């Protein structure tokens, strides 16, 4: 009887620092503040059976996850202020600071919305790079060591 090929997930964690605020929050989070975020990117696929090749025995080289996540998430968001486009006064203020690194987000930068935005950015990136061989199965984004959000491939 044929066996079903194993499907395995690999996860790479990267960290970055960003400022944000949740403008309508009823507590401290409406104030400008920052976090050391940690993003965990998980890809699922089969283990490569490529004897003699660099990726033999891997679902995907952790270095590839690092490179693409750095390029599309960490480098744009690190030491940036993540501001909701609806937060007009703050968008204008940040725009008035010469050369300030600001990322205007479609939605308020809760950890849920940031995780969702990261997933939407990375999903086509990994699909283009690795095709159907791999699936971006989930992203976990930590806002603090105690608070995080998970987004999964449906
Ligand atoms: N569901 C969500 N709730 C909250 C979010 C969020 O993104 N999604 N964000 C915040 C604040 O921005 C803040 O990042 C979290 O604050 P807090 O709960 O205080 O977390 P701490 O780990 O700093 O907790 P301490 O107990 O103060 O150490 C709020 N809510
Ligand atoms: Zn916060």
Describe the 3D structure.
The structure is a single chain. With 154 residues, the protein is α/β, with parallel strands linked by helices. Helix 1 (62-77) crosses helix 3 (111-130). The model has no long low-confidence stretch (mean pLDDT 95). The two termini are 30 Å apart. It has helices at residues 62-77, 88-95, 111-130; strands at 8-20, 33-45, 80-84, 102-105, 134-144, 147-152. Bound molecules: the ligand Nc1nc2c(c(=O)[nH]1)N=C([C@H](O)[C@H](O)COP(=O)(O)OP(=O)(O)OP(=O)(O)O)CN2 and zinc ion.
Secondary-structure map:
Elements: E1 8-20, E2 33-45, H1 62-77, E3 80-84, H2 88-95, E4 102-105, H3 111-130, E5 134-144, E6 147-152
Parallel strand pairs: 1-3, 3-4
Antiparallel strand pairs: 1-2, 2-5, 5-6
Helix pairs in contact: 1-3
The structure holds the ligand Nc1nc2c(c(=O)[nH]1)N=C([C@H](O)[C@H](O)COP(=O)(O)OP(=O)(O)OP(=O)(O)O)CN2 and zinc ion.
- State the separation between the terminal residues, measured CA to CA: 30 Å
Radius of gyration based on Cα positions: 18 Å
What's the CATH C level?
Alpha Beta
- In helices, the fraction of residues equals 25-40%
Assign an overall shape.
elongated
Protein name: 6-carboxy-5,6,7,8-tetrahydropterin synthase
GO molecular function, one term: 6-carboxytetrahydropterin synthase activity
Organism: Polynucleobacter antarcticus
InterPro entries: 6-PTP_synth/QueD, 6-PTP_synth/QueD_sf
């Amino acid at each position: 009887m044929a066996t079903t090929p194993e499907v395995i997930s690999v996860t790479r964690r990267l960290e970055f620092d960003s400022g944000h605020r949740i403008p309508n929050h009823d507590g401290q989070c409406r104030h400008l503040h920052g976090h050391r975020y940690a993003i965990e990117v998980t890809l699922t696929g089969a283990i490569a059976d490529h004897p003699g090749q660099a990726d033999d025995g891997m679902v995907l080289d952790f270095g590839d996850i690092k490179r693409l996540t750095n390029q599309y998430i960490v480098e744009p968001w690190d030491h940036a202020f993540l501001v909701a486009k609806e937060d007009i006064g703050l968008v204008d203020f940040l725009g008035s600071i010469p050369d300030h690194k600001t990322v205007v987000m479609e939605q308020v930068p809760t950890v849920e919305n940031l995780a969702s935005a990261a997933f939407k950015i990375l999903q086509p990136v990994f699909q283009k790079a690795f095709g159907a061989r791999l699936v971006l199965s989930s992203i976990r984004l930590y806002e603090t060591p105690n608070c995080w959000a998970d987004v999964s491939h449906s």
